[in-house]
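Notes from hallway chat w/ T.B., transcribed later so I don't forget. T.B. wanted the structure written out for a chain they're using in a teaching module, and asked if we could keep both sequence and structure tokens in one place. Agreed to drop them here.
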Amino acid sequence: MKIVGVGCGPGMLTVEAATAIAGASLLYGSTRAIELARDVIPMGCETHVIADYRSLRSLPDHAVVLSTGDPMLAGLGYLPGEVIPGISSLQVAFARLKVPLARAAVISAHGKDHARAVAGAREEVVRGKVVFLVADPVFDVGALAAALPPGTRIAVCEDLGYQEERIALGTAAQPPVPRGDLYVVVVGEF
């Protein structure tokens, strides 16, 4: 099986990923991942929207599984098989904000305990790291801001790579508010 990162937005498919997808005869992915790879999916390729993520471990060896962004960043990289990386929201957000990746501390709050993620983010900020927080639609940026020193910078990065991309800047005292469901949060001194 191949787990292929399709990038976090349109036009962010790597040549290696495009080649793997173009050679697929059986492909699985979320609706969004399939749409991001649509131009390189070959005619006749049996394509399925993932309905049950637990069943992915039992796919045949020739299956290609698409993962939005990079499979190793809160993605499907835990599956058995070869992982082909993609351009992640971490890479795009830090590039847009001009923050070196070496300063990053990654925290996932996507489908996880948000209070624990907030506590972890605070700890990393206090250590001098710039936190990249993978959010989900119900993550409360206000609760994160309340846990941080008031001058801490916060960026809400939405729809990275899409035409409607938006990066809203603020501080813990005046945090930016997400407008949609597809966003990440960058926190710290940057």
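Follow-up for T.B.: Strands lie at 2-5, 26-29, 46-49, 64-67, 82-84, 104-108, 130-134, 153-158, 166-171, 183-188. Might be a good example for the class.
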